[in-house]
Amino acid sequence: MVQHTAWDTHPEPLPVDSAPVPEYGTGSLADLLPTLAAGLGVPGMTAGITELTPADRNCVFLIDGLGWEQLRAHPDDAPFLNSLLDSSRGGTGRPITAGYPATTATSLASVGTGLPPGAHGLPGYTVRDPDTGALMNQLRWQPWTAPGPWQPYPTVFALAHEAGVHAAQVSSPTFANTPLTKVALSGGQFHGRLSGEDRMDCAAEQLAGADRALVYTYYAEVDGAGHRFGVDSDTWRGRLAHVDRLVQRLAEQLPPRSALYVTADHGMVDVPFDEDHRIDFDEDWELKAGVALLGGEGRARHVYAVPGAHNDVLTCWREVLGEQFWVASRDEAIAAGWFGPRIDDRVYDRIGDVVAAARDDVLLIASEREPKESAMVGNHGSMTPAEQLVPLLEVRS
Fold first, then answer.
1. How far is it, in rounded angstroms, from Cα 328 to Cα 202?
2. Is this structure's pTM higher than 0.85?
3. Which among 131, 234, 284, 397 would be 20 to 30 A from 48, CA to CA?
4. Band (10; pLDDT cuts 50, 70, 90)
5. Does residue 191 contact residue 169 with C-beta atoms inside 8 Å?
6. Is 298 helix (H, G, I), strand (E, B) or coil?
């Protein structure tokens, strides 16, 4: 392992304001359901993605891990999805942005609540719980934390249901009662279906069952294959080909006056297994100095300093990582809009004293405390186009 020293000569760190901030308010995942709900007449909803045309029946199919760049790079494996590229974002042929960090728990909460991370309060894979001082894994919900206080806002599905719109989620039965589903995707009816084909058929039935409908369905296996094998592996391409057929199956069953939107929670990048691309926090004495907790994930870190050490930690992290990561203090990241235009008081201390977002194809692993995550081939979380840009493909009937 290459050890850095404080006497090394370091180029100027990346300016915080050079990070490509997500399009909160006009073209992010958090704007999708409010736009559709506004078109359905749900009170209080705003159509932030102005390129979309209202429909009476709306279905969102979220493919976990399928970024815009990865989809465009594999036209032979996903011919149907690629045929829809020009339909993205209301026919502009452009992607939308996931939000920061580009990770599943954060993105699903943004989708379901219609709020950016600074408001809904799931600003990372793992973040510090200010009440306990412990790291909280917001995907696995460990350690268990009361869901309501952690994310108190109603979902768009709940608001739509209250307004008389038929709201439904069609996903794996495993997710029926999880805390993440409760805080991010609850409201209306949940329909558990094991196979992708059954989910497509059920989603079409739910759309057809009401004059006004808002339906959500989900497929996870593209993301899993990317993490384990990489986004250009045979396994990943096979999962992509399968979900391509699923989308076509659903599209061919759309009832009249329907719009199907195919999107994703994040993209992904493969990171080589060498010390130039994988920096091990657990073996780097400089990076560990003054750090009480390491949160987030390899490309989107929350760093919690011991009391009084946050300035020293920020300086050190900029010196060591500043060529490859955007490294910001909590207040700098908030001011730059990384987590959205506003930060709720309950969310402020969940964000790291130092926030580090990868620009290059690098990973800040923690081989001892995060062995499984450190062994993944495909990774995500940051603000690069490969991670941040996601499709918003459209099929109308």
1. 45
2. yes
3. 397
4. low
5. yes
6. coil
